[in-house]
Amino acid sequence: MGVPKRKPSRSRQRMRRAYNSVLTLPKLAVCTQCASPSLPHRVCPECGFYNGRQVINVGVAA
């Protein structure tokens, strides 16, 4: 098993950990029915449509 010969410097550790801030969030797509932002390839949480047809019934909040 490979074992490090030396302790990584603070600079190297911080460079490795700083990469997490570069990662991006998933992009949002616009729903074709209600024009609200939603994740692509998923049912719209606002209207319940997916691929042009209604998949789930979404009740109106009172």
Q: Can you describe what's shown?
A:
The protein is α+β, with helices and mostly antiparallel strands and 62 residues long. The protein has a domain at 28-62. The strands form 2 sheets. Strands 1-2 form a two-stranded antiparallel sheet. Strands 3-4 form a two-stranded antiparallel ribbon. The model has no long low-confidence stretch (mean pLDDT 88). It contains 1 helix and 4 strands. 15% of the residues lie in helices and 13% in strands. Strand 1 (29-30) and strand 2 (37-38) form a beta hairpin. The chain is rod-shaped and about 60 Å long.
Features:
two-stranded antiparallel ribbon, 1 helix, alpha+beta, 62 residues, rod-shaped
Quick description:
The chain has 62 residues and is an alpha+beta fold. It has one helix spanning 10-18; strands spanning 29-30, 37-38, 49-50, 53-54. The protein has a domain at 28-62.
Approximately how much beta-strand content do the residues carry? Answer: 5-15%
Number of extended strands: 4
Beginning-to-end CA distance, first to last residue = 61 Å
> How does the overall form come out from the CA principal axes?
rod-shaped
Largest sheet, spatial ordering of strands: 1-2
Model regions low in confidence, pLDDT < 50 over at least 5 residues: none
Helix- and strand-based class?
alpha+beta
Largest β sheet strand count, sense and barrel closure:
2 strands, antiparallel
Rg (CA only) = 22 Å
Query: How much helix, percentage-wise, in residues?
Result: 10-25%
